[in-house]
Amino acid sequence: MFLLNRNASHRRPLDPIDAETLGVAGADTVERFLSHRDNHRMTPLHALPALASEFGLGAIHTKDEGFRLGLGSFKALGGAYAVFRLVLEEAGSRLGRLLDVADLDRPDVRAVAAAMTFACATDGNHGRSVAQGAQLVGARAAIFVHAGVSEERIAAIARYGAEMIRVHGNYDDSVRQAAQVSADKDWTVVSDTSWPGYERIPGLVMQGYTAIVREALRQLPRTPTHVFVQAGVGGIAAALAGHLATVLGDARPTFIVVEPARAACVFAAAQVGRPVKVAHGQPTVMAMLECYEASPVAWRVLARAADAFMTVDEDEAIAVMRRLAWPAGGDPVMVAGESGGVGLAGLIRAVADNRADLGLDGKSRVLVINTEGATDPHRYAELVGMSPTDVLEGKMTAEATA
Questions:
Q1: What phi and psi, each to the nearest 5 degrees, are found at residue 317?
Q2: pTM of the predicted model as reported, rounded to 2 decimal places
Q3: Which neighbouring-strand residues pair with 53?
Q4: CA distance to 67, 83, 190, 196, 206, per residue, from 199 (Å)
Q5: What Cα–Cα distance (Å) separates residue 20 from each residue in 17, 184, 287, 319?
């Protein structure tokens, strides 16, 4: 499915609160917080010249979030960042003074954090970020996981000391239960999706993701003409599209949102002009994107800043995982999880079916995001036919013999 953005708000300025959240000042705050993380490193940007030549494009670059903050996913940027901000706000309120990231290790701030519990629903990656953030500041975490979350992903979250709470149903069911239980227990919900009356914290999570596009703009030789980004509830797509719209204005690249055909909630919102719940049918292999209702805050941004919406099928997502593991023509090897290469899968589909609609030609400079590495190594090996370790070792062997 493919749809150009025909909403009345398309290309209008962002809502002022979204412009503030996703603009330069917000991104500056994120970078200041990241500078205090011991394992923070700018993630790599890879050029794919052989693939670009095959598709008749000027350039393709992939920002590889599989190395982000030791968690293997872009989600490392959002949940932990929101936890840090919320701890400092609560501590500042109780202690009667303004606090910043350098104060997180102060005994009086950690005493406040120790009395706080942060909760969220997750497909896997967001929960790891919230749990890691809570552990780093000395708070508690309660993570709600639905039936589709693999045991390997659950174990990866539990390593950070989080209480794991299993929920029958899908991701949206876990979101509702997390909100209900947290209200009863006075826990702080750090969700990456929003609902009426609950927008600020998802906005902070999205703000954390602006680090990706800010880094990419510094790393790229030229500003991209097209950006393809995958969506679950829409948070990362909205963060990147909103930052580009705020910083570049009318000179921003064409922005395309890509989703699984089996869970296309942002596409459905684009069709009717508002978030709606889509039917939950057969699960998608793109586990981190299996969401059935778009975040209202994310949609508010994407209605203005996205230019097209499209879906990809199961086999296309798996084919991209394999293609990145065994690239042609000397392109770099990359490990992409089931949801990691979906933006690239969208580009491949668009080159075949929507080249003219999107103005893709020999001058196009395309940016895609590998949003995750092999966050479930067993599942990765099942789909690719080789473990992520073996894929990367093959890359290192090739580099050593080159």
A1: -65, -40
A2: 0.94
A3: none
A4: 29, 15, 10, 7, 11
A5: 5, 32, 31, 38
DSSP symbol at 42? P
Tokens of 301: 């941004």
d(C-alpha 198, C-alpha 191), whole Å: 9
Domain boundaries 2-74+206-401, CATH class: alpha beta
In CATH terms, are 2-74+206-401 and 79-191 the same topology? yes
Q: For the chain, what are the domain ranges?
A: 2-74+206-401, 79-191
Architecture of domain 79-191: 3-Layer(aba) Sandwich (3.40)
Catalytic: which of 123, 172, 192, 307? 123
The answer to whether residue 395 is catalytic is no
Residue 348 to residue 312: CA distance in whole angstroms: 10
Q: Over the stretch 41-51, which tens digit does the pLDDT of each residue have?
A: 999 999 999 99
- Point out the catalytic residue in the list 63, 64, 75, 192: 75
Q: What is the pLDDT of residues 81-95, one digit of tens each?
A: 999 999 999 999 999
Compute the distance between CA of residue 320 and CA of residue 326 in angstroms, rounded to an integer: 10
Could you tell me which of 169, 165, 161 has the C-alpha nearest to residue 145? 165
Token duo for residue 146: 């639905």
Residue 159 and residue 402: Cα distance in Å, rounded?
38
Distances (CA, A) of 351 to 2, 80, 292, 328: 12, 37, 27, 18
Report the side by side order of strands in the sheet with 117-122.
163-167, 140-146, 117-122, 188-189
